[in-house]
Amino acid sequence: MIHIYVSPSCSSCRKVKQWFDDQNIPYKTTNIFSSDFTEEDIRTLITKSENGTDDIISPRSKIVQENNIDFDEMKISELVRFIKANPSVLKRPIIVDDRRLQVGYNEDEISAFIPLARRYADMVCANCGNCELCVSEQKN
What we know:
Number of strands: 4
Shape: elongated
Radius of gyration: 18 Å
Distance between the termini: 26 Å
Strand order of the largest sheet: 2-1-3-4
CATH architecture of the largest domain: 3-Layer(aba) Sandwich
Strand content: 5-15%
Structural class: alpha+beta
Oligomer: single chain
Number of helices: 8
CATH superfamily of the largest domain: Glutaredoxin
Helix content: 40-55%
């Protein structure tokens, strides 16, 4: 299942959700400012992040700049507690599935979340014009 971490006022978050809706791909959302956003969610984000905190935390965040925070010096448990207490430091939206994490709305990169079978069908059937049940025909 795809999980999208969002904030209510984020236009990129709305774009991502609309993209998944348009693709008929199910997803779950969690507002990072709600009590539903758990320490386990944060651990998942950290674990799936290829470049550590650089992928998910905004260095331009006011709290990071004002306090000159060095995330590399924090223990994981400290980092998790910090993010839980200050979710605004997270970049958003953050899209996660079983294998990958993507931050932000990038139309080219987000297509990696289309199920493999559908991507294959789209590739094979896109120009055939012979199959009435083709996924590409159903989109039109």
